[in-house]
Write a structure and sequence with these properties.
- The complex is a heterodimer of chains A (about 475) and B (about 525).
- Chain A folds into 3 domains: about 25 residues, no CATH class; about 190 residues, v583 domain like (v583 fold); about 210 residues, Enterococcus faecalis V583 fold (Alpha-Beta Complex).
- Helices cover about 35% and strands about 20% of the residues of chain A.
- Chain A has 15 helices and 17 strands.
- A 4-stranded antiparallel beta sheet of chain A has the order 7-6-3-8.
- In chain B, the strands form 5 sheets. Chain B has a 6-stranded parallel beta sheet, sandwiched between helices.
- In chain B, strand 7 and strand 8 form a beta hairpin.
- Classes of the chains: A alpha+beta (about 475), B alpha/beta (about 525).
- Chains A and B meet through strand 1, helix 1, strand 2, helix 13 and helix 14 of A and helix 1, helix 2, helix 5, strand 4 and helix 6 of B.
- Strand 1 of chain A pairs parallel with strand 4 of chain B.
Chain lengths: ~475, ~525
Amino acid sequence: MGELKVVNLGLESFAENLRAKGAAAVQVRWKPPAGGDTAMIAALDRLAAGAAVDVEAANLEAVSRILKGKPTLVDVGVALEVIPGMTKTTILHAGPPITWERMCGPVRGAVIGGLIYEGLARNREEAEALAASGRIRFDPCHHHGAVGPMAGVVTASMPVWVLENAAFGNRAYATFNEGLGKVLRYGAFSEEVLARLKWIETDLAPIMKRALALHGPLDMKNIIAQILQMGDEGHNRNRAGTSLIIREFAPFLVRLGEDPEKIVKVLNFMNGNDHFFLNLSMPACKCTVDAARGIEGSSVIIAMARNGTDFGIQVSGLGDRWFTGPASMVEGLYLPGYGPKDAAPDLGDSVITETAGIGGFAMAAAPAIVQFVGGTPEDALAVTRRMYEITVTENDVYRIPALDFRGTPTGIDLRKVVETGILPAINTGIAHKDAGVGQVGAGLVKPPENCFKDALAAFAEAYAR
Amino acid sequence: MKKAIIRKDSYFDSVFLMALSKKLKEQPGVGDAVVAMGTAMNLELLGFQGYAAAELAGATPNDLIMAVDCADAPAVEAALAAAAELLARKKTGASASGSAFEPASLDAAVEELPGANLAVISLPGAYAAREARKALERGLHVMLFSDNVSLEDEIALKELGRSKGLLVMGPDCGTALINGYPICFANVVKRGPIGVVAASGTGLQEVTCLVDRYGSGVSQGIGTGGRDLKNERVGGITMLMGIAALAGDPATKVLVVISKPPAAEVAAKVLSALGDSGKPSVVHFIGLDPAKAGALPHNVRFASSLEDSAAQAVALAKGKPLSRAELGGDEAALAAIAEREAGRMSKAQKYLRGYYTGGTVADEALILLHRLTGKVHSNNQTDPAFILKDPKVSVGHTIVDLGDDVFTVGRPHPMIDPSTRTERVLAEAGDGSVAVLLVDVVLGYGSHEDPAGALVPSLLEARRAAEARGGYLPVVASVIGTPGDYQGFSGQVAKLEAAGCMVMPSNYRAVVLAAKILEKAAAK
């Protein structure tokens, strides 16, 4: 044996004594596997004893596709024209599938707003009646290559960013971020909200489409790599990303020859909304992770999403099946005047960022928002370091300066989540529980444990010998 | 009463301010509090909450607003001062928890410590085997301190380890010395040419400490766990791998094997493996009469005690036998001490009481005394006639192993928590038939910081009680330890001697002296 290097599980004094004598010893903060859940331990052991498919190899294939991904902003389009399967009476929403009856306040509000925006209803009452009538098809964004923050409502006329994974050719879509406060994604549907949506449709989107055409395809992988070195994690902090987008677009906006006031409004809108970039980081992550879907035997999680009622996950080797649990309340900090009693449960597709290995997984890159995770930069480092324990690999492009440029933890392995009991660290905003009030805070949310356990049971059923 | 003040050009991150507002609201006397930057949205919200527009006028997103709602003006001022204080509070560099990052899984630990080669596992038995398997799969040797690991798991782990060339020390392995580092319950022993493989923890401690005392040192001390040789199905896998490893280790010149008598088939394999090693080897099967052992390979010899094992090994390593002085005196010297002690005892004093914390040294005492004086009761007895009916009550000659499971339910092992033994000594201090006390004191990592100091008051009390009865109670002790141990070997010996104990250089010698005292007392 070479130099003695000890991993100690159990009595800490054994590690301390070895360190006192100058040997290298690491203490494991051990707890019973799967929280001591014997059925889960049995499922893990069955998989470890030998699966019908080589799970390790399948997972390596999954993460190699994620790492090879090259998310690129290629166009701005209209949902009906570019999103596969979109119809005039389809409303896409965040999270796993849900019926109108079970939708939470903010999602209902956004649906109402979407129906009025589309001209399918004139007011709240008509919209509610239509939504309940069965004539509107509700479907998850995720089923259409799309992702939406918070309520995630996408309707036929809405302009969307079109991203393409240049390595694999698959596309992803997201609407334009509307800003903070009273906005559709938080369930607001007042005149002001609808007017802004209309302005996005008639002014912002066409202008950005033309500017992007002049600019040419924008390499989002490059941008995300940069923002992680500028204090963003791409989910709860998007200030650097938004700034970079303005820098990328500014010369091309000027060159459009538009009415300068229109361009000023566009620039002010982007500048006034730190989360403008979120609706680009999300589809960038979506088209990256989607390339790893449907790999037989892979236990890599390829979607996590919330609809405000349910939290759901999808696993690469288990097809399009959702495993759901009740959406949790967010542990967070509140905007002035609000508190936990005002909050809606966890909501939105933005957790696609964590699924791709940024967001909460890159918390160590965003020291400015460490208050969400305990208050010190050390706590933020610990959040990211903890995520290495449930992921398959590290990103080769997305790197974190504070961790000596270590790559972000990438490719959540369902087995490791259940085994360690370490749940994915998810940064998120907090919506007001009532439709239309808007964002009331932000924080960290713990996904429900049972969806991971249910998925593991199904995975063992499918693959254990 | 509401009041808002503006601090110009003071930018703070909104998340920091949300946390600060929360803290401020928790202060006594504060009804509501908002500390926020003067963004349009925040100004609007503060306006809704009834803060005066005049107070908020002119605030920009670069200005800090501190707004509080309290019962009266003094409370408002106090709250604003508290807010200022919270803003000024300097953050320390250390994390809130103060501790270094600890990985939560074996996998993460291996990533944290590239090249990790040994997993030390002291988890509850139900989980220990699982983690041990993972460690083996990741290429780590395993020291399995845990007990309550099933025989099936032990066999499976050891077979997996063997297929990968990895040692599984244990289950129930308390001691090892790897590359000179003491692992779990082990002593700081000099490095040297003697390699030991032992199926018992305190046996390995006693032998390695004596090797150190005799001026030699230990290359590796490998533990196997008690079932390795005793159970035919395990078949001594770890012992045989340990012997093979030491045979191939250029730093190891002499091999020592310590175990209770193994299953016959296993014993033959062990002796044959030692023969194949070609290195001079010493075997001690505790309690096995060497005369009955049959033929030995030419390079293998039996030892008669733990002390003898160390002495023979050091003699082989040095190329010359140890002197009497090195061994700590001879039989005649012991007889003289026994004569002196016995002379002070009363006629009613007949029986020996051995209160042990170390299992193997208890066994050594039990077997040796049973041979010398006969009729020794113990919870470790193999002769059913002499198994203690109640391990918590001594009868006649008794050697009690206080590390037995019956004593460690809900309390630590007596090597860690000396109260198990001191309570027993005190409980039996009133027994006038007791002639001599025999104790072990085990030093080293894992053990209590001052085992002698903890034991002495109870011994003094027992001696006082005997004297009050018109007798005299000799106490014979041995200390397992080295000058390198953190408890301080000489200080521990001095504490025992100051209490009137006769401290022998080995457990073997302590037992022999105790037997001689009994003999002399009986002859009175």
